[in-house]
Structure formats: C-alpha cells, structure tokens
Amino acid sequence: MHTLLVANRGEIAIRVMRTAKRLGWRTVAIHTDLDADAPHVRAADRAVRVESYLDVDAVVAAARETGAGFVHPGYGFLSERSPFARALAEAGITLVGPSADVMDAMGRKDAAREIALAAGVPVVPSYGLEDDPETFAYPVLVKAAAGGGGKGMRVVRTAAELPEARAAAAREAASAFGDDTLLIEKYVESGRHIEVQVLGDTHGTVLHFFERDCSTQRRHQKVLEEAPAPTLSAEQRAAITTAGVDLAREVGYTNAGTVEFLLDNATGEFYFLEMNTRLQVEHPVTEEVVRVRDERIDLVELQLRVATGEPLGIDQADITLEGHAIEARVYAEDSFHGFLPQAGTASYVSWPTEMYADGVEATHDDTGAVVGRLRVDHALESGQVVSTSFDPMLGKVIAWGSDREAARRRLVDGLERVAVLGLTTNTGFLAALAASDEFRDTTIDTAWLDRHEVPAPTDEVARLLGAHFLAPRPTGTSDPWRHDGWRSAAAPAPVVVELGGPVTVPTETSVSVVHSAGEPIAWVHADIDGQRHSATVRDTSASVEVLHRGQRFVFDRHDPFADHGPEAGDGTLKAPMPGTVLAVNVAEGQAVAEGETLGVMEAMKMELALKAPFAGTVTSVGAATGDLVKLGATLFVVEAAE
C-alpha cells in the first residue's frame, strides 16, 4: 500500500485524500496547534503535528516518521518551493509534482519568460528596471518575479506613480516570497486570463486538458473560473493549448501544471504570463468538462499515477470537452464593505451537497442521464473557528451543465443554498455576480470587477423574515418555534415586530427548525409580492442573523441593521479587520495631510492602507510595526487642523 502525506490543509487536503483513499492509498495529514482538530486532520488515517506548514524540515520529518513514500503539496504553502522538492528527493520521498529544477526554471517569472521565448511562445513586451520611466508607454504593470497570486503587483499609469508602486510591490513580494525582484511589463487594458491545464508523465508524453477562463478577478485575485473559455474561437483555442504543451515540453515538465496566458481583447493576440508548477485551485472545472474516452477525469488520480511512474497511456485525440463548468471561491470576507477579511466562529454551516459522500449533487433527466452537477469542495463545519492565520478560502462551489447558461443558473442556485452563520462570507456577492446580466452577457476582462460594482443587496426582505422569526407565538402552541396558529382557517391579526423599526409580519409563512450547538436555527419561507423567499435565521440574545440569497444580515433587536466595521468619522482610525501591522509611518505630534498613509496592515493576504481622514495632527499611535491587532482596535487618532 502506498502512503501519501498531504502537505496542506483545508479543502484541498480533503480533496486529495478522497482520491488517494479511493485508489487504496494510506493518507497522512499534518497540522499546527491552531487546527489540530480540523476536518482535514480527521479525514486522514494518521496526523502529525508540525510547527508550521512552511517548515520544510518538519514536513519532511513527518513524512519519514509515518513512512510516507509520496507527498502531495496541494497549492500554496510549499507547493512551488524548490528547496522542499530537493529535501524530499534527498530523503528518498517522491513529490507529487515536478522536479526542483523545473520549479526553479518556471517559478520565477523572469526565468520562465526566457524559456517561453525559447519554445516560441509569445511573451508580454517588457521594460528594464533601470530604464528611464519617462520613456515607458503607460500603463505598465509592476509585478514580483518570484511569485504569483496577485501578490507584489501594481498597475502604474504615470511615471510619477512608479516609485511608490515599486516600493509597495517590492515590500509585498519580499513578505510573500522572500524575494523583492520585480518585472515591469506592458499592461493590457482589456485582457482575459486564459490558462491551459497540462500534464506530463516520466515517459516523455505531455498533453493538455484544454483551457480555463479565470478573467473574473478582483485586484488580480480570482473570483470565478470557468471551462472551457467562453467566446474563444477554435483557432485561438488550438493556438493557446498548443503553446501550453510546447512550453511544458521545452522545460521537461512532469505531473500536473498550468500555463497562464493573457489574451488581448483589442488584438486577439495572447502572451505567456507564468507557469504554476502545481495543481490549481480551479482544477475542478477542468475535471467537470474534460472527458478521456468519454469518461470524466480525476486530475489527482492522474497525478498519483504519474508519480508512481505509470505512463499516461492516452493520446491528445482521446481528450475531449463536454458541457460547461463554473467555480466560485467562498471566502471569509465582507465583499460589500471593502472586501475586508472576516474571522470568528462559524456557528452554523450547511453546504448544499453535504448529504452526498462525494460532495456532488447530480441532476438527471427522464432517461436517467446526468444533465447537471453541483460539486462542493470544502473544509468548514459548524462550530469551527476561522482564523486570520490562514488563507480566507472556506470552500468552492462548482456547477456543471450542458452549456454555460445551464451551469450559471445551477451555480447561482447552489450559492444561494450555502449557509454560514456566525461570520460574514462572500457568498451573497458571488450569487449576485453570477446572477447578473453582465456576467451572463458580457465578455468579462481581468479588470472588469475593478471598474464595476456589484450592487449590495437591500435588507428589506431579510428584515421581514427576521421579524417573522421574532413575532409572538400563538397562545397554546406547544412548540415555541412553530406558528401553527397562523395557518388556521381564520385570518390572523397582523403582527408588528420592532426590528430596527416596526415590521409587519406576513401571515402566510411556514417555518421549520433544527437546533445546532444549543442554538435555534430556523428556515423561514415566505411569499412576498408574489415571489417565494427563503432564509436561514439564527437567534441570539442580542441580535438576529438572517441569511438571504447568500448574504448575511445582522439585525439588532433595537438598532437599525448594522453589519459593518468601525468607522472613523471623528478622526479615530480603528482596525477594520483583525491582522498584522506592517508599517507605522507617523509619530504622535506629527502633522499630516488629508489622505496621507498613516500605516499599513495585512490580514489573509490583503494589504490595507490606513489614511488620514482630514488634515491635522496625530495625537495617538496605538500600535507598532509587527503588532497583531484585533478588529476595532484604535490604531491612530488625528485631530483636525484649525
């Protein structure tokens, strides 16, 4: 029996273990003190504590201790670190991924660019770091040479902006990758992010499994991904997928990898961006649409077979496409209030596919054929603490249908059935985005979300459903959570509840209730103005949480709806999220101008500048560089100038 250690956590660790166990492998998880009882730990046959997921020596030692002959790195953490690959090789352990030399070659954008040129793959025009900025054709993109994921990346539109952008990008790159080397390239104003899934075995075969479109991004962080890329012509698809294979073959690539390209909407030309030498977060959309000899694929299974030395045993002609798939990343963040990271205890969690062992809900037609699939990869359950110490992604909702529209509709339905109470997630934002006419009809480029605002949902319906939950129960009702008296033949008198103002409760409403962790959780259904509405409701002593169409609302029993972080209208700047202070730029007594950056903090991969609300004098500095601060902690106080 093969033993596989998964050097990761969360949903990807569980997803890898599921396939490994199906193939008869023994699985090993690693964990820190913060997540010793996490779902991925319980999913493994054995678990080992490490000080950090980034500790190469500790992870290799864990593999040795458990007799693991193979290590799957997932994504993030050590997945693209060549020292980790070399340490495993020296220990006689096989990494489920490419070699350390290939990671070195492709892990840096500057080196990968040269390999792309050698393979005949087009690259984005660039500028030298020592070139005169006045000679650049703006806009340009400053980006880290040593990493990806949008870290260390800034769009610059004038020469005057370049020094500050370079400094910020370098600082971010050094923090994320330990290397502040930068590249400066042409910035394509309207481009699409197209990536090719490739896989090579140790026998010289390199194949592509078609492409994905990951253009729906916010500040270079992917939000929605889909496959195949919509509106891509057959000629473009053939050219891009061929370029991906050519690049992988040029570098001698083995196992799964992704070659990323930028497609210029203005010209139709495409340019190589980078290669991710690992499995991608969005790999499920490829699995949902790609068929090998008419069978659905499992990329992790193919990875494991390649790692054991097996040949792929298929040709490019065996690989075809069927239908369309879209993936949405569920994050612990408040998308309608600055996308600020959230932390806390998820008091109640329900995923739409949790009743299925494989996390997939299939829809069949009258003949029994599968016409739709909803898949959820996650690692979040009721009562779990979500910490800012880890990535904010909680799970992924993936929908497949016969075409893009069918997949889109199924995705919206799935997102609206995700229920997370106790902390705010981006599920409501994702549902609103996927349901929008713009996403349905527009060819979205990588900057579309930065230019367009997804309207925040109003709270009227949620407030109404919450008020129903608080309404007085009929006399004689045995179950305090059932409104049986409102279903009698006689029309009941209207019920008015104070919930941020008087709310008249609808009379035709049904309620079903479960109890989770000793707290009442209800599903409320109501027909309002001829439309059916549903919500998940949780009652606490101070407030009522209502989850309606994926969006979480918190209503105080007396105050108006308020689900936002602290504000700074009086010159007091408080931490809008729990996190780490990266920089403190001012001292007490210092005069500052309106908009001047007083300090910078970071949480869950997001960097936020705290700026003076008006011109004045700093009267208080409440934190130092490196401090861990809580949500609402007072960081700076500015007294307005006379």
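Second entry:
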Amino acid sequence: MPGLTVTVVDTTGIQNYIFGSNVLKHNVGASYLISCATQDWVHEELVALGSTNIDHKGHFNSKTIEKDSLTSELVYAGGGNTVILFQSQDIARDFTRRLTRRVLTQAPRLQLVVCHTEFDWEAEALSQVVQAVLEKVSQKKRNLTVSTPLLSLSVTADCQYTGLPAVGKNKDDKRISAEIQAKEIAFETAHSTLTQLLPLNGYEIPKDFDDFGRTRGESSYIGVIHTDGNGMGKRVAAIANRYPCPADNRSYIQDIRAFSQSVKQVAQDALVATYRQLIRSIDPEDKIGGVVPVRGGKLPLRPIVMGGDDVTFICDGRLALTLTEFYLRQVTARPLADGKPLSVRAGIAVVKSHFPFARAYALAEDLTRSAKEYIKERAAPPFNEQDLSAMDWHFAVSGVTLNLQQIRQREYTVPGGQLTMRPLRLVSSSNDWRSWETFTTIINDFRSDKWSERRNKIIALRDALRKGEEAVRAFLQVHALPDLPVIPGNPDSAKTGWVGKRCVCFDAIEALEFFVPLEGGR
C-alpha cells in the first residue's frame, strides 16, 4: 500500500478565539466550534467521502485501511491533533477542502492548520511518520502568516463585541459579527450536549457569569481554572518508539488510539465525579459549605474547554481551590491505557466576575506554567514530571496589571524570602512540606476554636510575617496568641511561621475567604 497519505488537522490561535469575549455564551460556543472542527465535522466529512472506520458520531468499528480498502481511517483525535490515513493524497486534499469550507462558513475566523505526507504502509513505520508530520504542523503554526482580510468596502456598522463588521443583531438587540453569530448559534447545542453528559440531578448549568453563586455585598469573584497534563508529549513519543518497524503499524494505531481515548474518558469521569461531589455538598438551605448559594438551581461550576488532559472550567471563586483539588485527585486516580496514571498541573486565577476574561485566562495559564516549573524542580530521580501533580493560584482582589513574575516579586518577596508556599504538590512527601495536605492543615488550624475569637489578629499577623521570624515571635508574645501551625520536622515554625526562606502561614491566611470545603450537604 504505497499510496497512503497521513493527514494531521490542528487549530491555532484558540486562546483568543475562545477567551476574547466577556460573554460566557461566546466562550462556550467558541470552544464547541473548535471541538466540531477537529472532531465532529471531521467524522461527518470522513463518512461523506466513503468507507471509513467510524460513524458520523465518531464511534469506531473494527475495519482497517490495510485489510478493508477503506477510503480513510481515523487514527486518533486527542491533544488538539486529529490524525487520519487516506487512500491517496487526492482524497486527503478533497477532505481538506470540505472541512476548511465548513469551518469558513460555520466557524468564521477559526484557523485550521493541516499537513499531509505520503506514506508506504509496508515500507515505513507509521509511528515515525506521524511524529514527523506533527513536527511539520508545529513548524507551520510557528511560521503562520497573520491574515489581514479586507473586512468591508461600503459603510458598515461594527459588532458591539469584536469591532468587526456586523452582519445582524442578536436576541439582546446588539450588533454582531459573523464570528459572534456562529458562537451564539453553537452555544445552544453545546449547552444541551453538556447537560446530557453531566449528572445534574435536576440542577442547571450557568449560562452567565452572574450565575456563579454571586452574593451582592459579599462576594463577586469567579475562579478560572486551567489544567494540563504533564509530560504528555513524552508519553505519546514513548508509544511511538515502541513500534519502530512497518510490521508494527497496526499495533501502533491500536495503542495510540487507546491512549487517546483513555485520556478523554478519565478527564470526563473526573468532571462527572466533581459535579456529584458538588451536589452532595449542597445543604438544606441550598448553600455549599453554608456559604456559597445555589441560586435558581444553578450549580456554580461550568467547564468551557474539555480537551482530554487540557481542561478549563470556571466556578464561584470561593470554591476554586477545593474544586480544583478534588478534580485533580479524581483525574489522577486511575491509570491510562499505557499503564500509568495521568499527572496534572493546574493554575487557578480568582478574579472579579466582570474582570476581562482573556486576562483572567492568561493569568491561569501563567500559574499553570509556574506549577510546571515547580514539578520540574521536584522531579529528581527516581521520579520524573509524570509522577507529580501540582497547583498554583492567585487572588486578584485588586485587579491585575502586572504579569505573574512581577506580582510575586512585588507582593510576595520580602528580605526574609518568599511569603508563598505555593505552588503545592497534590500528594505529600516526606521531604517536601509544600503540599495540599499541609496547606489545609494550616487553614483548619486557623479556623479552630483557639483562633475563632482572634480574627483580627490573624489578619494582622500578615504584617508580622512580612517582617520576618523575630517580628512573628514578638507579635505572638505581645498579644498572648497560641502557637502557629507546626510543620512536621520544623518545630520552630510554630513560633516563627517560617521554614528556611519560605513562609508557612501567609498563603493560608490569604485564602481564608476563598476556601469552602466540599463536604456535608444533604
């Protein structure tokens, strides 16, 4: 079979496409259109071209391109990439024309990147060819020419969301561009699909940022959470390296497809478990933790991007830490198809509900990168980055004008060292106290009876922590305060609030207003 063609479909500029609007419906609709362009529409166009190994909903059958003379075979779709085998390059190009035409008309301004390469099934290792095409896609994305289309020739009205030429008005009587029109149309299907996927038990999913448990006069913060898998490229490459010979091509397809499907299934199951736990945490007064209201039956949690290991969701800001931790524990609890569990890094940006969403997501991404750097620092032999999961966060209570590095330098760096203990590892280690368990132990200590009447003193303690160990000793003594939470193996921390160059208590004090446990309920 010397005439086969390997085709890889990818997208570029998706962050701006999804998060460039402060309207939740636009964000959700954009994410759904990307899913359509790389999965749903791919399935439908493959079926329309001729015999293939899937149906229009993406369900696989047992047919193979080398035995059943299929017109096409979907190898896998995951990690943002869709890999397909075609009987010829002419068929591959016909598919590309069909798909890109559909994207141009139904998802305006979404950018696809498609690469083809010819392939000989009997003489070449598919695993190595796919890796080479993926690299071509990456190069093409890096060198992509920025499109500057001629937007209009006559007198036009501008879209009130994007500034692009308007093509009509929406239900709110606002002028909208073709891009926004497509996203708003897609939202209803996306919302219906998500509603069918999740165990809502009669509750609803929010359609607006104001539906996330917002309490007038008390709290108007949302959490923007971005998660990503650790070392996923290495795991994909490891699967490819196990099949270096042409005789292994079918085995490679089976393994890489199983791996891709297992990532998607584990992430989906983790999200379902998170919703179930959230519902279990609702008390008889329709509040979570006695604090976060479930207004109008709307659960204060909504996923926006569900791309396997790459997931972005938003929630009430007071639930951001505990929801993220619960989700991470679920997603890392069981092995993938390659026999190892998924390890994940997460960034959590807690911002005011009408904070520019694109900036909030950018901050969450920066925090994800911070967690990744922490993982790399801690991944000493015999461990590696695929063995650790970690999370980092920031409470943007006064807005964000600096990048994360500048914020940490200006607000959390003092002569004594770093005020933050974050990023935190998910699972405790005997030689690393910077873990979620340590953090929650400290928070629970500050919420215990011995501190319950000393709320103002807890807040004032932050100034002493900024000044260093001796200032903390004096503060505790002058005000006759109890010992601080102790870090195992570091008894002096009970008097100083510091371990080496790291402050122990500052993060927990800062998080007291943004920490609602997922427990109790009905």
